[in-house]
Amino acid sequence: MAPSPQGQKVLVPVFAKTLTRLLCPPLRQCRPLKSNAWLEAKSVNPNHMSRKIFLSENEIPEYWYNVMADMPSKPLPPLHPGTKEPIGPEALAPLFPMKLIEQEVSAEKWISIPDEVRDIYTVWRPTPLFRAKGLEKALDSPAKIYYKYEGVSPSGSHKPNTAVAQVYYNKQEGVRKITTETGAGQWGSALSFACSLFDIECEVYMVKLSYNQKPYRKIMMNTWGAQVYPSPSDRTEAGKKILDADPGSPGSLGIAISEAIEMAVKDESTKYSLGSVLNHVLLHQTIVGQEAIKQMEKAGDFPDLVIAPFGGGSNFAGLSFPFLRHKLENGKNVRCIASEPASCPKLTRGVFRYDFGDTVGMTPLLPMYTLGHNFVPAPIHAGGLRYHGAGVVVSQLLKDKLIEAEAHDQLAAFDAGVLFAKTEGIIPAPEATHAIASVVKHVDQCKREGSKKTILFNLCGHGNFDMKAYQDYFEGKLVRHELTDEEISSSLAELNTPEIA
Predict the structure, then answer these.
(1) Can 64-114+159-279 and 115-156+286-493 be said to share one CATH topology?
(2) CA-closest candidate to residue 104, choices 324, 366, 375, 298
(3) Which of 10, 34, 396, 427 has an alpha carbon within 20 to 30 A of 196's alpha carbon?
């Protein structure tokens, strides 16, 4: 039975007095607050804005943005690994469905997102944009800091944006099985999830270092029906070759790519899928930056700096390319900065030349910034960034000085990641901590210069499956690691691929 009006009149003052005694410090008089006082305070505070900026589902972009259409210098063509002559789209047919090949070479500026893909995107998209108020306060930042959070996807990162699209196109061509590689497990998880939606088998070769460090990523993939193998493995000739030379090899993305490609070309009903580097992968990720532009407009702001972690390019391209469009089209003054590990600095210390995308040499030769396809990165915890080369489009943009790159060692990255976790509440993936380290660097620069900037970065995923990495950090087991000039020179000396003038 509902309480009588008389009962309510008695209970409300009693509750209010009790609450006042609990919340107000002793010997300090607290005045009652008007019921709409917080609204009045909000209306008179010109600096107030929401911490989270959302979009509705009908604001999910309908097209992917192809930066190739706006690039002043188009990338050089891929070369046949044997003849060293330019190859056409048909050379990719054994690995990819024709629709993805068309996207790989397309010069169209806008490519329509299929309705079925866009409908699946609504499971987690649009993703939120945050104002990092806690981080700003901790850094005493004169800069405004925003981050786009992709960790709300089913697999916990940005990777499903392209995984769903790629599996959709494979399904359209009747593909029954897809093979792939994965470093930290984020891409393998995303592809496993996507394959489960379209009833396609998924076979994942996971870099052995991460396979051992992150067992729950493997379980996540198994839960979605995928078979997962540590790479290098004895299932492929490529894996056996590596193990013969180095039985204790920790593996690398380049090795895992070789294994996945080898398995794909053996079966006509099997295709290969790549989680980064290639043009069509970067294309699918631009949904991230397009949403962020709309959200920044709602905040009444536009970034001076756009920062994202860099492994092969999908993370960075996804956020930065739509903003770069404003620079290429309208001369907008925006800096796009790729943040990579000092232990795998292909953008900051590599060379621009043709190289293989895998370790064994099964892929076409691609014009890229590279440390050499035989390079095996140090066993850092940011497994998704342990790749020897950069995507073709990103490489050309860097060569043309339209984007920038910087490197951070893993201790500086984890320092920044822990600070972020304490101030914003989200534990970032080790890959994402590199972007946060860049943010800290540029905030310090703003302080020295006495300038005020707006910084946007991509928090590409959460670190909830990376507790071993954080455990090693807190136990002092992580070390600063930066490649020597001799190590880089030695790796590059092994290359016999065409140089680029």
Answers:
(1) yes
(2) 366
(3) 427
Instruction: Give Cβ neighbours of residue 368 (< 8 Å, ≥ 6 apart).
Output: 346, 352, 353, 354, 355, 357, 389, 390, 391, 392, 395
Q: Mind listing the pLDDT tens digit for each residue in 379-426? A: 766 667 878 999 999 999 999 999 999 999 999 999 999 999 999 999
- Beta 365-370 vs 110-112: how paired, if at all? unpaired
Q: Which residues of 200-228 are buried (b: 16+ CB within 10 A; e: fewer)?
A: bebbbbbbbbbbebbeebbebbeebebeb
| Level-2 CATH architecture, domain 115-156+286-493 | 3-Layer(aba) Sandwich (3.40)
Q: Select the more confidently predicted residue: 121 or 382.
A: 121
Domain boundaries, the chain: 64-114+159-279, 115-156+286-493
Judge whether residue 23 has pLDDT over 50: no
Measured between alpha carbons, how far is 43 from 90 in angstroms, rounded to an integer? 61
- 329: exposed, middle or buried (C-beta count within 10 Å: 0-12, 13-18, 19+)? exposed
- For the chain, what's the residue count? 501
Kindly tell me if the per-residue pLDDT of 378 is higher than 60: yes
The single residue listed with the structure tokens 């079966």 is 267
Q: How many whole angstroms separate alpha carbon 347 and alpha carbon 352? A: 9
Inter-residue contact 257 to 181 (CB < 8 Å): yes
Task: Return the pLDDT at 40.
Answer: 36
Residue 492 scores a pLDDT above 90: yes
Q: What is the DSSP string of 393-425?
A: HHHHHHHTTSSEEEEE-HHHHHHHHHHHHHHHS
Chain Cα centroid distance, residue 11: 53
The token pair at 90 is 């048909």
Q: Express each pLDDT in 292-303 by its tens digit.
A: 999 999 999 999
* Cis omega (within 30 of 0) for bond into 232: yes
DSSP 195-224: HHHHT-EEEEEEEHHHHHH-HHHHHHHHHT
pLDDT interval class at 313 (50, 70, 90): very high
What are the percentages of helix, strand and coil residues in the chain, rounded to 5?
45, 15, 40
CATH topology classification for 64-114+159-279: Rossmann fold (3.40.50)
pLDDT band at 77 (very low <50, low <70, confident <90, very high): very high
Q: How far apart are CA 319 and CA 255, in angstroms?
A: 28
Distance CA 411, CA 32 (A): 49
pLDDT of residue 43: 38
Among candidates 357, 307, 312, which has minimal Cα distance to 337? 307
